[in-house]
Amino acid sequence: MNKDTILAEYYVEPARVPVVDFQLLNSSDDAEQHAAVDQLDAAFRECGFVYICNHAIEPERVDQAFGWSRRFFAQSSETKELITHPPSGDIDDNRGWAKTGQGHTVQMVFDADEAEAFRQNNPDCKETLELGNPFSDKVPPNKWIPEHLLPGFRSFVESWWTDCAALSHCLYRSLGKALQIRDSDHFSHMHSENDCHMTWNFYPSMPLNGFHSPEAKRLNEHTDFGTLTLVFQDAVGGLEVHDGHRFRPIVPIPGAIVVNVGDMLERQSNGRWKSALHRVVAPAQLMRPRSAQVQDGHGHGSIEVIDRYSLVFFGVPNPDEMIETAPGCEAPGRWKPNMNGDWGTLSARQWIQKRLAVEY
């Protein structure tokens, strides 16, 4: 069997993620807006993911954000260690730089020993910068590299936070319209404190053959903890969503944000909307069976997967908000919410703490 045949057999069709126009979601034309909201609802009901195009953050701003991300992660370890993430899973410690191997992603595992065993066998190959609301005195303060070491970084990140929070609130209102809640600001109200979370990810380059270990992932499969997640991904690729049968690539679309449903929104919609499993691996166009790997003269895999960056904004309701069924969602949907369990109804803070506790 030749290489082209092997690669053709390995090819995985990308996920069928709809593209929704942000301008139409906010159109003054009722028919246009209604059609766009229906598209959003259908995307969240079927796969839990959507591309949002023509949004309010200019492409130049996105490019600037990725530039700052590259500059931050290019700093020396000594510099980044000035703001190191504490080695705990406490919600109030979730700030600062986490080196590769410090954090690990598990899906609905709450036993500490089981989580540690998973950590040893399934490392996440990434660095992160974890940030909270920089303007709130109700949440733990962010950790910042001294200004003279990275001039302008803090100022840009704070303005980027503002951009993402404003965009999120526009989308929260679209959620209310999609569920036909009388107060379309229902979700915006419960996010009024903007106690959200921002994660900048850096996935360092690594040999492609490392990905052919079943344990090796850039980011292990998981669902997100919160309500809506905004994902700005670069052109490298590697993000995949599980469609119920297999993982499929979410191919980067220039100018579009990937937006997905988190656990809390799945619970609030009573399973109408799906908090879907997703992960980050090597880009699909580079993945291949072991037999098709390119070998160097010494029999070693010679392809290296390049660096990847993503900028993520996690929508999280106010800390004391109880995560319950939203008005009009009393009839169960097709998905069984991740938040269903023997622990009863939880607040936003309690759910984040429950999931975060086993990740550091």
Topology:
Blueprint: H1 3-10, E1 19-21, H2 22-25, H3 30-46, E2 49-53, H4 59-73, H5 77-80, E3 96-98, H6 112-121, E4 127-131, H7 153-178, H8 186-190, E5 197-203, E6 206-207, E7 219-222, E8 228-233, E9 239-242, E10 247-249, E11 257-261, H9 263-268, E12 278-280, E13 304-305, E14 308-314, H10 348-356
Parallel strand pairs: 1-2
Antiparallel strand pairs: 2-11, 3-4, 4-5, 5-14, 6-13, 7-12, 8-11, 8-14, 9-10, 9-12
Helix pairs in contact: 3-7, 4-7
Task: Give your account of this protein's structure.
It comes from Tolypocladium ophioglossoides (strain CBS 100239) (Snaketongue truffleclub). This is Putative 2-oxoglutarate/Fe(II)-dependent dioxygenase. The protein has one domain: Sandwich (Jelly Rolls), CATH 2.60.120.330. The chain has 360 residues and is α+β, with helices and mostly antiparallel strands. Strand 9 and strand 10 form a beta hairpin. It is globular. Helices cover 29% and strands 16% of the residues. It has an eight-stranded mixed beta sheet. The chain has a four-stranded antiparallel beta sheet with strand order 7-12-9-10, with no helix packed on it. It has a two-stranded antiparallel ribbon with strand order 6-13. Helix 3 packs across helix 7 and helix 4 packs across helix 7. The protein contains ten helices and 14 strands.
